[in-house]
Amino acid sequence: MKKIAKLSLLAAVIAVAPLAASSQAMAGDRYRRHHDQDMLAAGAIGLAAGLVTGSVIASQPRTVYVEPEPMYVEPAPRRIYVEPEPVYVDDYPPAPRPVYRAAVEPWSPEWYDYCAARYRSFNARSGTYVGYDGRSHFCTAG
Fold first, then answer.
1. Gene Ontology cellular component (predicted)?
2. The last residue of a domain, from among 21, 42, 58
C-alpha cells in the first residue's frame, strides 16, 4: 500500500511541474505564442502521469475467491433403539427364613446384666434408663 501512495504522489508532482513552469509571470508576446505549446506539453505530461498511475494501480496483485464445488456427504446411519424382550428366570433360590432371637425375660439375671452393660443410666429398681430425649424408657433386652 505504501508503494501505491509513493508512486501516486510522484505522478502528481510530475503532472503539476509543467503547470508551475508555465505561469503567467512571463508577460508579453512570447507568452501568447508559446501558450498553446505549453498547454499541449502539460496535457501530454498529465496524460503520461495518469497512464503511469493507472498502470501501477492495475498491476497490484488481487485475491480472487473461488467458491468450491458442493460435495455430497452421505449421512451416517441412524441407530434405532430396540427394547429387548423381558427374560423371566424361575430358578432363584428361596427366600431366607427369618431368624428370631430368644428374648430375655425381664427381671432375670441375664436381663439385668444386659441392661446394666448397655445403658449407663440403667436403674435396676425400676428397670428403666434415661434416653437422649431425657425421658425414662423400660429396658427390653433382645
1. membrane
2. 58
| 132 residue type, one letter | Y
In this predicted structure, the answer to whether residue 33 has a pLDDT above a threshold of 90 is: no
In angstroms and rounded to an integer, the radius of gyration of the C-alpha atoms of the chain is: 58
For the stretch 9-24, pLDDT in tens is 666 667 666 666 655 5
- Nearest 5 degrees, angle CA 138-CA 140-CA 142? 170
118 assigned to some structural domain = yes
The tally of domains found in the chain comes to: 2
Is 74 a member of any domain? no
Beta bridge partners of 138: 128
| Domain end marker among 41, 58, 75 | 58
**Residue 130: which domain range?**
109-138
- What is the C-alpha to C-alpha distance for residues 127 and 142, in angstroms, rounded to an integer? 15
> Cell for 76?
451416517
Q: Is residue 134 included in any domain, yes or no?
A: yes
What is the structure's pLDDT at 88?
79
Cell of 46: 498529465
